[in-house]
Amino acid sequence: MSIKQVAILGSTGSIGVNTLDVIRAHPDRFQVVALTAGKQIERLAKQCLEFKPRIAVVSDADGAAHLSKLLLEKQVQTQVLYGPEALITAVTESGCDTVMAAIVGAAGLVPALAAAKSGKRVLLANKEALVMSGDLFMQAMKHGGGELLPIDSEHNAIFQCLPNQFSKDPNPSLGVEELWLTASGGPFRDTPLDQLVGITPDQACAHPNWVMGKKISVDSATMMNKGLEVIEAFWLFGLPLEKIKVLIHPQSVVHSMVRYRDGSVLAQLGQPDMRTPIAYGLAWPERIEAGVSPLSLTQLAALSFAEPDLVRFPCLSLAFAAANTGGTAPAVLNAANEVAVAAFLDEGLPYLQIPEVVEKTLNAIPIASADSLDVILEVDARARNIAQEFISKR
Ligand code: NAD
Ligand code: MG
Question: What is the Å distance from ligand 2's center to 219 Cα?
Fold first, then answer.
């Protein structure tokens, strides 16, 4: 068995740390050749000390100097680079054959695209990349000829429930009728609407079932996360939007389902632990130990499912609308949401105004076709400016 050479984009985040946890248990299968982080230099230094990658990348020159100093003290030979271009270098020059794309937000788009073009195995956690540029990304994967393994738990579940040949040839004879994405409903699923007024970042980030980065935790509370995931599923699996459904499932045990023409519904179940989809993506088509405790169905009180409440979760409606509009609308939605969530986390925007900022930004920008990276990056920048202006002038 050859050892897989892995690059992790976003190694200091929640997905990055879980990825290293799986890799740590399988030194005979995986070697880490590149690690990248934004600003968490000390955590990255510890990871470099343990995994000895060829390349480490951070956001800026100060961070690079700090990391170089820490590594020199410990005589670690890792080459330290910085800036957005260096993220591409980590993909193309590290000798990796597998890339975990786990930078949060639009910052992860360009390196994820580089991974897609490169013909390597891409483990895609960074859903924002697909939301912004699904068409370009899927084309880049096709031309690159590599394997795309979804890491987002719902998409990983659906991937597991689809026939093997579906991604290459989604032939109607395979009988796939609908994809059902499950959603916990987040921390405010049952909170009376009048109590959502003063929600704090800590309350919004306290997800009942999953431990994740802050941005995706807030997205889960507003259910923008599920909206982004509908768009992600649309690009990954190539089914029309009306065949992609969302179901509230508070227990987070059924990670998603596929309904077939003959009446069968296939579901993937498991603990809410990202190491399962990460291990699946790393070892596919084999299965390896992920460090996840076995699921005990007898200890579960019940599994329940319900329709989402679009009044409670206006972000979900906005995402459905942007998905239906298509073109650059999902990129605008994503950019405005990133700015609004960052402002909320910074205590500069009330929780309930996140959807308002997104809606106003969507209404302010005419939609074009998303046919080049330049167009997408331009609309992303414009949407950020407009969203920021709405927040400042409130
Ligand atoms: P996180 O905030 O914990 O980590 C983000 C990582 O990206 C960190 O390593 C950070 O240093 C890096 N980063 C942030 N901004 C950067 C920039 N400008 N340049 C370079 N690096 C930068 O986020 P996370 O929860 O690990 O999520 C990562 C991605 O995976 C997101 O797109 C998220 O939607 C997706 N995802 C996460 C989970 C989860 O359980 N955490 C589940 C499904 C999907
Ligand atoms: Mg998910």
Answer: 10
Instruction: Name the residue ranges covered by the structural domains of the chain.
Output: 4-150, 156-187+207-218+230-308
For the segment 369-387, what is each residue's pLDDT rounded down to a tens digit?
999 999 999 999 999 999 9
Q: Is 59 helix (H, G, I), strand (E, B) or coil?
A: coil
Q: What is the dihedral angle through the alpha carbons of 321, 325, 331, 334, rounded to the nearest 10 degrees?
A: 0
> Omega before 350 cis (within 30°)?
no
Buried-state track 5-21, b at ≥16 Cβ within 10 A, e below 16 = bbbbbbbbbbbbbbbbe
Cα–Cα distance, 353 to 150 (Å, whole number) = 31
CATH 3.90.550.10 fits 4-150, yes or no: no
Report yes or no: 235 and 214 within 8 Å, Cβ to Cβ: no
CA-proximal residue: ligand 1, atom 9 (nearest): 10
Q: Which residues have a Cβ under 8 Å from the Cβ of 270 and sit 6 or more positions away? A: 253, 255, 276, 292, 295
Residue 158 near residue 184, CB atoms below 8 Å: no
Whether the Cβ atoms of residue 339 and residue 390 lie closer than 8 Å to each other: no
Give the ligand with the smallest distance to the CA of 229.
2
Residue nearest atom 40 in ligand 1 by C-alpha distance:
212
User: Which of 182-191, 279-288, 295-304, 371-380 has the least mean pLDDT?
Assistant: 295-304
d(CA 8, CA 382): 29
Map residue 289 onto helix, strand or coil.
Answer: coil
Give dist(CA 335, CA 276) in Å, integer: 29
Alpha-carbon distance of 114 to 378, in angstroms, equals: 19
Whether the predicted model's global pTM rises above the 0.85 cut:
yes
Question: Treating both helix axes as pointing N-terminal to C-terminal, what angle do 214-222 and 354-364 enclose, rounded to 10 degrees?
Answer: 90
* pLDDT single digits (tens) 25-57: 999 999 999 999 999 999 999 999 999 999 999
Mutate to test the pocket of ligand 1, among 216, 224, 231 (most ligand atoms within 8 A of CB): 216
Ligand 1 pocket list (CB less than 6 A): 10-16, 37-38, 40, 59, 102-104, 107, 125-128, 152, 210, 212-213, 215-216, 274
Cβ atoms of 68 and 45 closer than 8 Å: no
